Amino acid sequence: MIGKFIVFEGVEGGGKTTQIELLRDWLLGKEEWRQVLSKSINLEVVITREPGGTKLGKALRELLLSSDILPEKIQETSELLLYAADRAQHVEALIKPCLERGAIVLCDRFINSTIAYQGYGHGLDLELIQQLNYIATGGLKSDLTFWLDLDVEIGLARARSRGNFDKMEQANIEFHRRVQQGYQELAKNNYSIVRIDANFTRKKVQQQIQEIIMQKLVEWRYT
Ligand SMILES: Nc1ncnc2c1ncn2[C@@H]1O[C@H](COP(=O)(O)OP(=O)(O)OP(=O)(O)O)[C@@H](O)[C@H]1O
Ligand SMILES: [Mg+2]
Fold first, then answer.
1. Section 153-162 average pLDDT
2. What is the CATH number assigned to the segment(s) 4-221?
3. Any residues with Cβ below 6 Å from ligand 1, and which?
């Protein structure tokens, strides 16, 4: 596939949405990238997210994250499968077609979120999650994954300052600490995950991301 698939991961309020938007603007605004970018990479940047990147995904997101839409607790295994359904639809209907036409896809959360939240957070079987992730993605991997590493309490405080928090944001702090530990383990064992220190200002975080992207764009040009 000729496009590039860049994923942003991390705990609630880590700055994923903020940084994805800043990265899109920066990529689109820089004329010099036309020289750096491979001819096959268009300057089309698509922002998407999980859950919720497709119409089905939006409906699933409502079910999964809105506190008041479903008067029933979604069981952990059902939740896992709903996330997988969102992902399968997302990969086939949106991500792959974008990559096939050469777009840069910036995706807010992907397979590592399921490992961190459902695996480490809820304690569901990691092997099973890997298998489900494989089924949902058909083996599609990101070209680059940023992990915005921020202390859980700071992230939640930032997220809550936005107002009306979702189900994940309402989960207890111990859950979020396990999620954070999941990201730490994932980053340790996976060289394609790049840790970004998200404790700094938006601008400083953005600079760290830009540096990595600059290196990657040059690398991708020759591969
Ligand atoms: N570096 C930063 N310093 C201080 N505040 C920030 C920083 N980056 C983002 N914020 C603010 O923190 C809040 C959370 O940021 P953002 O929504 O980008 O995080 P997120 O990772 O997308 O969160 P979620 O997982 O809940 O979607 C927002 O109000 C945002 O404006
Ligand atoms: Mg966000």
1. 90
2. 3.40.50.300
3. 10, 12-18, 158-159, 161-162, 201-202, 205
